[in-house]
From TrEMBL:
This is Peroxiredoxin OsmC-like protein. It comes from Rhizobium gallicum bv. gallicum R602sp. It comes from the Bacteria. It holds the Pfam family OsmC.
Length: 141
């Protein structure tokens, strides 16, 4: 597995929801967005955010992988398209993530494969999803 020494960045988010309206999410670094729930509303719903987190992490990790391999200067664009399939039984969850990488540039297929697989090893989000993280929940009034 890839070992990275990154400068820590504050992470976390808070969602607030009133009796009506959208859930409003604010990151610890002051990013903001509203969460939609209707299928016809443009915007992000919670599953979109999960897929977005994975896709963003994968392309950022692919860039790191390409740099480590010494081929970043030959890459013109990295894309990770992430969708999923919900489980039909048991608790509500994503049962399968479908990831389609597009790695454009002057590199061969073997190098593309290595970049994609290394990106999955580097990506904190993919590593977390594959694991079984502990939840520590506190409840206040």
């Amino acid at each position: 597995m890839a070992d990275l020494k990154a400068r820590p960045r504050p992470t976390g988010a808070t969602a607030v929801l009133g009796r009506a309206g959208f859930a409003h999410v604010t990151s610890v670094t002051k990013g903001e967005l509203d969460i939609v729930t209707s299928p016809s509303q443009p915007g992000f719903n919670p599953l979109d955010l999960l897929y977005s987190s994975l896709s963003a992490c994968l392309v950022l990790s692919a860039r790191i992988a390409a740099s480590q391999m010494g081929v970043l200067d030959r890459i013109t664009e990295l894309t990770a398209d992430v969708t999923g399939e919900k489980a039909t039984e048991g608790p509500s969850r994503v049962e399968r993530f479908n990831i389609v990488f597009a790695i454009k540039g002057d590199i061969d297929e073997r190098t593309r494969q290595k970049i994609a697989h290394t990106a999955e090893e580097i990506c904190t989000v993919s590593n977390t999803i594959r694991g079984n993280p502990e939840f520590a929940t506190e409840i206040f009034g």
